[in-house]
Design a protein that fits this description.
Layout (H helix, E strand, L loop, with lengths): L28 H4 L1 E3 L10 H26 L6 H19 L6 E8 L10 E8 L6 E10 L2 E15 L6 E5 L5 E4 L1 E4 L1 E4 L7 E5 L3 E3 L2 E3 L2 E4 L4 E4 L11 E4 L3 E3 L3 E5 L9 E4 L2 E10 L7 E4 L1 E12 L2 E3 L10 E3 L2 E6 L2 E3 L3 E3 L3 E3 L3 E3 L3 E2 L4 E2 L5 E3 L25 H6 L9 H6 L9 H5 L5 E9 L8 E11 L3 E3 L13 E6 L6 E5 L4 E2 L6 E6 L15 E5 L6 E5 L6 E4 L4 E6 L2 E4 H7 L2 H4 L14 E2 L17 E4 L4 E6 L3 E3 L1 E11 L4 E7 L5 E11 L1 E7 L4 E5 L18 E12 L1
Parallel strand pairs: 1-2, 6-9, 6-51, 7-10, 8-11, 8-52, 9-12, 10-13, 11-14, 12-15, 13-16, 14-17, 15-18, 16-19, 17-19, 18-20, 19-21, 20-22, 21-23, 21-24, 22-25, 23-26, 24-27, 25-28, 26-29, 27-30, 28-31, 33-35, 34-36, 35-38, 36-39, 37-42, 38-43, 39-45, 42-46, 43-47, 44-49, 45-48, 46-48, 47-50, ...
Antiparallel strand pairs: 2-3, 3-4, 4-5, 5-53, 32-33, 40-41, 49-50
């Protein structure tokens, strides 16, 4: 047996070229025994050629079969496709396990493109177990051509992988209530994912989103908010969109612009129901088109300007695709498509064409060549003109913090033992326990760090009033009178510590006179080779008790059920939590040398890069290993310049990180453009039932570590990906 296969050479005579084979039918070729091939010219029939043709026929058939399995099991989020994906793998396993694992063998007949049978050999395909489990399968193709036989095989492993959670939103609201935002600034995407009808969100006072926005419900806009569509911070090749499932009502100046040229698949606003404007809205700009879709439009008040196409298509219920344009000053630098009736009461300039399925009232008020106005038109709704789909629901969470705290399933959680140890009496450590050990007080750390990204490491010294090295409770027994305002506390995560779980004692409250700074250093050496994330993480968890009961997976919603969480309330003023690798780059040596005091604004030379690509002169943090898990009915109030670098998973909790946060942070995009002096409250992901903000506040995207328990939140056994690994090809 040789492990290095001969590869087929598609450009030489005698090579088998074949037409497309239906995706799901590939798994049934062992039943139908038919593969469609393009005609192959016959050439000389010497023994060398006979063997070569037998090999090419066998290897082409095998690779066709394997490629179709790969197509059948390609990653997907579509429920229907996922069911087909599972069916494909189940069928393959069924074929392999037949005859006590000897599998299923079928002869394949080849039909040429001209409908005539071509003499390219006869082939048997066998799908069998390799060993005692159908998890391991060998697919063998044996072809005989004019008396010469060649055999090739593919060894594959069947996988059923829990689907990892994919976190793409800087702020994600899970609750079924509306919300109001005042001076909220989001660098990255934002979403309200609970598909409950009738919710109303409100943007006021310069609220800005620099990314995509998806929400279920209606949006009311006043006082100059901005959505600046930018490339995705998850994948720079993807663009951005605005999706509102119900109504958009603009009462006072709304700007939706883009930093990129329009291309298929992005740069659009999709409104599920009605668009109403009464005072200034602009969409897109010259060279940066943004298309807009809705099911009814009422453009009024002052000024509507758009660069891009405007589409009004019929929707569900009473939405007939009608549009009224009656603003003082309205221009569409593109084309207008109306599936219902169009009523123009004031001058409307359209630089492209106007297509209306119904009737046009006020045609004389349309500033556009008459030949470009089409009444009674048929709309293709294809290509660029196709209305984007509003997803029926967002990717729902399956597991909750309660599951991470209490489950015994290691596929769900890695921290339940540490959490429950707080309640069974086996872990009574508090911050004060470490303060009683003088080796952890006034702790100095010196480490070689690549500060420039060039590979050259320099010694960096940072100092702390207190060092935490294992799981414990942050209780009110730590006297900040002994440490003073702004005490620096180091949390050290290592191989010996494992996951460090810090329980926040219920009712923990610190006013601005103390304002501690917590720095989390992660030096666990076991690293995920795919993502580069370290195995162990630091978790700040709510004090939700041990009476939590996990009631299984709901048969209707597919979500975990739980009860018995204790309500928790936390109030912090001026609390700051940093990732160590960011902290030592953000501040100069003098600041790092202090064991207390507000660290203040970052160095002016420090530039944070939240994108997925490296940018010269900036620092791109690793996926965050600082995770906040707040269970049901927990409320966090963090005010007065508080700052959190880490990810919040609090789908049934209230997170209120308000006021200006950390001042003077510079943030870059993937093109190197810097947003200077950002007042930043959080760097990470905030997932909450409801979210509160006040005053000017920025929230910057960085996704959580792929090794953290958050990766199981949307996945687990009930949302798996089914596929295979091609281990090797063999030519016998």
């Amino acid at each position: 047996m040789k492990n290095t296969p001969k590869r087929k050479q598609r450009n030489k005579p005698g090579v088998v070229l074949f037409t497309a084979v239906a995706v799901m039918l590939m798994l049934s070729i062992l039943l139908t025994a038919t593969v469609s091939f393009v005609s192959v010219n016959r050439t000389k029939t010497n023994d060398n050629y006979k063997s070569k043709q037998a090999y090419l026929t066998a290897s082409s058939t095998l690779e066709s079969f394997i490629n179709q399995i790969q197509t059948d099991t390609a990653p997907t989020n579509d429920p229907t496709a996922k069911a087909q994906q599972k069916k494909a793998i189940d069928n393959l396993k069924k074929l392999a396990s037949a005859n006590s694992g000897k599998g299923t063998t079928t002869n394949v007949s080849y039909n040429g493109s001209n409908g005539k049978s071509d003499n390219i050999g006869t082939t048997k395909i066998t799908v069998a177990q390799e060993g005692t489990s159908a998890k391991y399968i060998v697919v063998t193709c044996e072809t005989t051509y004019l008396g010469k036989t060649e055999q090739v095989a593919a060894h594959i492993s069947i996988r059923t992988d829990p689907k990892p959670a994919d976190y793409t939103n800087t702020i994600e609201l899970v609750g079924n209530g509306g919300a109001g935002y005042d001076n909220l600034n989001v660098i990255g995407d934002m979403a309200g994912i609970n598909n409950t009808t009738g919710k109303v969100y409100r943007f006021t006072n310069n609220t800005s989103i620099y990314g995509s926005y998806l929400m279920y419900g209606s949006l009311e806009v006043s006082t100059q908010p901005l959505i600046m569509l930018k490339p995705s911070l998850v994948d720079e090749k993807q663009g951005s969109t605005v999706t509102i499932s119900e109504n958009l009502d603009v009462s006072n100046e709304f700007h939706i612009n883009s930093t990129m040229a329009r291309a298929d698949g992005y740069n659009y606003v999709n409104i599920g129901q009605k668009l109403s404007t009464s005072n200034h809205m602009d969409v897109g700009s010259s060279g940066f088109d943004v298309d807009l879709f809705c099911c009814e439009a009422n453009i009024g008040g002052n000024d509507y300007t758009q660069y891009g196409n405007f589409y009004v298509y019929k929707g569900a219920g009473a939405y007939n695709g009608d549009a009224t344009f009656g603003a003082n000053g309205q221009t569409i630098n593109g084309s207008l498509y109306v599936e219902g009736d169009l009523n123009v009461t004031k001058s409307l300039k359209v630089t492209g064409s106007v297509y209306v399925t119904g009737t046009i009232t006020g045609k004389d008020k349309i500033v556009c060549p008459a030949s470009n106005i089409h009444e009674g038109a048929v709309l293709s709704k294809a290509g660029r003109d196709a209305k984007p789909q509003i997803p029926v629901s967002a990717d729902a969470y399956v597991y909750y913090p309660e599951d991470f705290f209490m489950s015994n399933d290691t596929n769900v959680t890695t921290i339940s033992d540490e959490y429950q140890a707080f309640y069974d009496g086996s872990n009574t450590k508090t911050f004060n326990s470490f303060a009683s050990d003088w080796t952890n007080v006034d702790y100095t750390l010196t480490e070689l760090i690549d500060l420039t990204g060039t590979g050259a490491k320099t010694p960096v010294t940072s100092r702390y009033k207190l060092r935490i090295t294992s799981s414990c409770t942050w209780a009110s027994d730590l006297s900040f009178n002994d440490y003073g305002n702004g005490s620096r506390i180091l949390v050290d995560v290592s191989d010996s510590s494992g996951d460090v779980v810090i329980r926040l004692q219920n009712g923990l409250s610190l006013d601005s006179s103390w304002s501690p700074t917590i720095v989390v250093r992660n030096r666990s050496t076991i690293i995920d080779t795919t993502t580069g994330d370290r195995k162990y993480n630091c978790y700040f968890v709510s004090d939700s008790g041990s009476a939590i009961t996990l009631n299984g997976i709901d048969s209707v919603t597919g979500k975990s059920k739980h009860s018995g969480s204790s309500a928790c309330n936390y109030n912090f003023s001026g609390l700051k939590i940093f990732d160590y690798d960011t902290y030592v780059r953000m501040y100069d040596a003098d600041t790092l040398n202090n064991t207390k005091g507000n660290p203040g604004a970052p160095q002016s030379s420090f530039v944070l890069n939240p994108t997925s690509v490296d940018v010269a002169g900036s620092y791109r943090p690793s996926n965050s290993s600082i995770i906040f898990l707040f269970a049901e009915n927990t409320t966090l109030n963090a005010t007065n310049n508080s700052f959190f670098q880490g990810s919040f998973y609090s789908p049934e909790a209230m997170v209120n990180i308000a006021t200006s946060g950390l001042s003077g942070l510079n943030v870059t995009d993937s093109a190197g453009k810097i947003m200077s002096g950002v007042q930043c409250c959080a760097v990470g992901v905030v997932i909450a039932n409801s979210f509160g903000n006040a005053n000017t506040a920025f929230y910057v995207y960085t996704k959580p570590s792929t090794t953290s328990v958050m990766q199981n939140a949307k996945g687990g056994k009930d949302d798996s990906a089914f596929g295979y690994t091609l281990d090797r090809y063999d030519h016998y």
